[in-house]
Amino acid sequence: VVLTQKSEASFDKQRIKLLEWSAELLAGSLRRLFDEAAIRRQARQDGLTNLANRRTFDTLLAGEIDRVRLGLSAECSLLLADLDHFKSVNDLHGHPAGDEVLRVIAQLMRDYVGRMRVGERIVLARYGGEEMAVLLPGVGLAGALRLAEEIRAAVQQRTIHFQEKSLGVTISLGAASCPQHALTSEAIVTAADRALYRAKSEGRNRVCLPSSC
Asked: What is the pTM of this model?
């Protein structure tokens, strides 16, 4: 709303009421827009970590796999990451401490993802519980493994301060690529999950492929 009158006398009671009504209408419309945007954002994001949620990630993963299959993209990779012995953090220090660990590690992963050349296309999600997923469009297996190792080392070195406690955690990661390991979204998740299982079973705090570490 732009007011151009120079004299206060130009605004009689009727015009002032009209301006007040217009301002209230505009404010109400803006509130609804912000509320709707917040609802849409909440539907796409995990509330604790502000990462993409599982549903959003699955949709974007399927789209990237289709791009590879159609020849629109040469490759894409997937990382599945799981915090080691996370249950003990909750058991020993309480769930608020566990929540803080998840928030800090999510931000750490976001920072490392943001350094990549294709960072604006990468999708980072909370996949479930303490498990996180990284979709790497246009990134081959070598790049995915390099990022995974950087994340693993950074998590190991990170001290998380919560209240008067200093907490340390490690993370295991499994990597898989399309078309090398799979040609469907379901198959690449299975391959990355198998790699993550190997990392867990072979000692944790490591990065593995579906076949070997």
From this structure: 0.79
